[in-house]
Amino acid sequence: MTDDAESTMPLGTLTARLAEQAGALAGAVGSPLEPPAYLDLVRRARDVDGLAGQVLKLTVQQSRDAGHTWQEIGELLGVTRQAAFQRFGKPIDPRTGAPMDKTVRMENAAERARQIAEAVLGDRMDEARPYFNAQVLEAFTDEVRGSGMATVAGLVGAFEGFAEDAPFVRRVGDHTVVDIPLHYEAGDMKARVAFDTEEKVAGLFILAPETP
């Protein structure tokens, strides 16, 4: 059964299926004297994870319908309200009135964004520039980079490394946008790398973590 079909099920039906599959997974673990079929466990765990995601999506939708805010939902999930909206919301294109496609089609966006951020933060611009589009290549000079890094250092001190939190990847309009958590001497920041439709860097910023 597809995710779309499952998403149309009532919450009670979904949770009953989730409980059934979780019970089957627990039963398949076996006893300490009888090792389980590990690939079967992977398959069962995948199915449980997929159903749990459908239950979470539906409960978020119902919470929104009941009047709860994205701020409340984000705090409960341990993310910003924007991250909650990007994951579960249904943005409408103001130009057409149609739902916007949020599918991220760029492969390895997080890995490439981190590679570019590492090069820029490490003053290895020759490694980063081949990924820039023409506008960024012209505008993001060594002087601009130096000025930006100095401004950030004045706010939060020296760069200390990348945070353990996973990058946040989403589609915004025609762009793929990646936020990468960073640690600085006196506070946390994030690098934001935006890729255009040609998968070239269309923007690169160091921002406060709460920046939408």
UniProtKB/TrEMBL annotation:
The domain of life is Bacteria
Q: Which residues are in the DUF3887 domain?
A: 113-204
Enumerate the Gene3D superfamilies for this protein. Answer: 3.10.450.590
Q: This chain belongs to which protein, by name?
A: DUF3887 domain-containing protein
The taxonomic lineage of its organism, from the top, reads: Bacteria, Bacillati, Actinomycetota, Actinomycetes, Kitasatosporales
